[in-house]
Design goal:
Pfam families: Lactamase_B_2 (PF12706)
Number of domains: 1
Mean pLDDT: 97
Number of strands: 14
Number of helices: 7
Oligomer: single chain
Protein name: Hydrolase
CATH class: Alpha Beta
Keywords: Hydrolase
Distance between the termini: 15 Å
InterPro entries: Metallo-B-lactamas (IPR001279), RibonucZ/Hydroxyglut_hydro (IPR036866)
CATH architecture: 4-Layer Sandwich
Organism: Acetobacter cerevisiae
CATH topology: Metallo-beta-lactamase, Chain A
Length: 267
């Protein structure tokens, strides 16, 4: 299983739009460090047999997929329905044309309902053989529990994203938890024994909807993953500062970071 971090930025990316010269607001991030340039949060999971699962379709998804040479997959998992995680759904049309079939979108019923409200046409029945629009088929999944995606067992875990729930996932020895500020006890049980965990860490100070550094380090002490990678990083999280200050076993994500782990169990 190969995991690629397509984007590791917050909802506005880094740099954020604006700035005195119009070239962005960098906050504490050094604009001369390329690893501080962050597109919106998304990952791609590819199994050894070629089966792929895209997690979220943010507004940067077209460029992300082109950059990393990803052009074929049949599954998308949505963590929640905020715009920075769904706004690029139309770009799936190009993938439809490659795989010559609709893409399956896995999400909780409430998330699917919201996505369908915004992209109703994408979920309309397909008339073969052409794709004049993206074509996606909804596949409801629970907020917490085991499901099958692309023929593989995936364990979903409930998360709190402030005012709304979000979904994390675990595939074998790997777990992904973007947009999370609190975890219920049952989700800690799903994460037990995980080797590599990518987790939301938007800033250093407490936040109402996103985990911050001290909270993530508390979770690390409880779950004890071998490798913990921080994502959904805001403009407060400078690459060099993190390199100098993060403890052993904790590292900052950057767009394009990838690693391999054993495939999860096949269903």
């Amino acid at each position: 299983m190969k995991v690629t971090i397509l984007g590791c930025g917050g909802s506005a990316g880094v740099p954020m739009l604006g700035g005195e010269d119009g070239h962005g607001i960098w906050g504490q991030c050094d604009p001369k460090e390329p690893r501080n340039i962050r597109t919106r949060a998304s990952i791609f999971i590819q199994m050894e047999d070629g089966e792929g699962i895209l997690v979220d379709t943010g507004p940067d998804i077209r460029a992300q997929l082109l950059t990393h040479g990803i052009s074929a997959f049949k599954s998308i998992f949505y963590t929640h329905a905020h715009a920075d995680h769904i706004a690029g759904l139309d770009e799936v049309r190009g993938i439809n044309r490659v795989v010559k079939q609709p893409i399956t979108a896995y999400a909780t019923p409430s998330v699917l309902e919201e996505i369908q409200t915004r992209f109703n046409y994408v979920f309309q029945p397909w008339t073969p053989p052409h794709f004049f629009r993206a074509v996606v088929e909804a596949h409801p999944v629970p907020l917490h529990g085991d499901v099958v995606m692309g023929g593989y067992k995936v364990s979903l875990l409930e998360q709190s994203h402030g005012r709304i729930p979000s979904s994390g996932l675990r595939c074998g020895e790997f777990a992904y938890s973007t947009d999370v500020v609190e975890l219920p006890e049952a989700s800690f049980e799903v994460l037990a024994g995980v080797d590599t965990w990518i987790v939301d860490c938007f800033q250093k100070e407490p936040h109402s909807a996103h985990a911050w550094l001290d909270r993530v380090l508390e979770w690390k002490d409880r779950i004890r993953p071998r490798r913990l990678i921080l994502t959904h990083l805001g403009p407060d999280m400078d690459w060099a500062w993190m390199q100098a200050n993060l403890p052993d076993g904790v590292e900052a994500a950057c767009d394009g970071l990838c690693f391999t782990l054993p495939d999860p169990e096949k269903a």
